[in-house]
Amino acid sequence: MNQEILDKINKFTRKPLKEEEVYTFSVILCDNDIDRDYECFSDEALETLAEKFIGKTGIFDHNPTTSNQNARIFDTEIITDSERMTKYGKPYKYLKADAYMVRTGENNTLIAEIDGGIKKEVSISCSSARKVCSICGCNKSVGRCSHVSGRKYNEQVCHTVLNDITDAYEWSFVAVPAQVNAGVTKRFSGDSVNSVSDYDIKMFSDELKRDIRRLAFFAGGKPAVDSAMTSAEFMNTRQLIELKKSFEKRISPNGVEVQIMPEKENGFSADEFSMK
After folding, report:
1. Does 189 fall in a domain?
2. Which of 171, 218, 229, 232 is the least buried, fewest Cβ under 10 Å from its Cβ?
3. Sign of CA dihedral 51, 56, 60, 65
4. Helix crossing, 237-251 with 198-232: angle to 10°?
5. Residue 138 in domain
6. With contact defined as beta carbons under 8 Å apart, do 125 and 170 qualify?
């Protein structure tokens, strides 16, 4: 952690904190793609949210109590993924936030759960003054139209574009966020694996193996799972990344995103997998 980061954090503290007193992590708060509620933020809304979320507190399940506060955002950034498009054909953008917590005896478990990928998904609370129908441009904040969210009109999925953000209230760890991609970030590329700790690599490798197991089942049932997991046991992190990519291409050769649902304790079910 460099001094610039500490300076940003200490803008929100009563006394300057030292590096060993602080735990930091990054979260994807929201993006400009269509979410589970058939809503999306405009690019302008993301820019406004980036400004308004600096200094905002992180809680659990949108329960706004003082005792429920656990982290605070000290920096934000809009990131464009040039290799990805939204479901409506525009460049994919997301709002990344950097948050901090003061290390205490009480939050050691929470920090371990964040590092271990248990506390991961997040959701935001904000207000939008203009909610526009993607089909006809009607402002649903002041009127209604005949178009139904989620229904296709001339091959376009109807959704609501959120704009004119008036306030950002808080962000929360939740079990199921409205936005599929929102959550604590941990992204590794083939070039970056050597720069992270052995602990992080182990955690990421375990996560990759879980995804590979589920993707393999979707691709070829239990025989494919047995074969894939036998191979995965002897692979390094880079090789696991490539194996996961190969299964994703087999399942969705046209690049449709695969949403991997949790596996049941008593085994897999093909019904647990859905295309997004």
Report:
1. no
2. 229
3. negative
4. 50
5. no
6. yes
